Amino acid sequence: MICFDFDNTITSGGTFWRMLLCSGGWRGFLVNCLKESFSLTLYAFGLREKGRVREQLMETFFRGWHEEKFGALCEFTANRYGHLLRPEMIQRIENAIEQEEKVLIITDSFEPLVRAFLPKYDQIEVIATELDTYNGMLSGRFRSPYCVGVEKVRRLLSLYPDRKEYRLVVYGDSKDDADILDFADDGHWAREVSISLLSRFRVVAKR
Q1: Which letter does DSSP use for residue 91 in this model?
Q2: CA angle 8, 11, 12 (to 5 degrees)
Q3: Entry pTM
Q4: CA distance linking residue 92 with residue 195, whole number of Å
Q5: Containing H/E element for 201?
Q6: 36: CB partners within 8 A, 6+ apart
């Protein structure tokens, strides 16, 4: 079983803020961020958790949006920022699928956004922060705990509880992935993968 984080692991940059920007251009982005300036300031000083701030931003930006409209926004974001996908990670995903290994993405992002960036890979199981909806519209709240840290391990074990049945390989990039990287049989920091591939490229180039 191979598990990947999404932002800054499969991609070379964050997609959350880019999605917010795509939702209403710079003007809408700045207006809504100004509404949440107090929470953002607390987060900047380490006084509020990222998950809580992101939930507040989702409510400010998307409360009352229809699910289909949000899905279209995710596709628009993916089309605009598809260049963020890291070729070395896409290659690892494709290799794993070809070898019929189980591939998961465990992320604090949202499944519609992840799927929009990876539309060709229906075989991938996505474990993400779940969005609350009512009558087909977003409430802006989270239906599940924010999927970082030990929550990633908990969500994995809720689906695959018998740890003896599989060998777990994990790719992550930050402290939010530290728990599941420690839990893995074989954990990899995304930066190490990129450096390794760059070194190989340099060796080949010198020949």
Answers
A1: H
A2: 65
A3: 0.90
A4: 15
A5: helix 190-206
A6: 53, 56, 57, 60
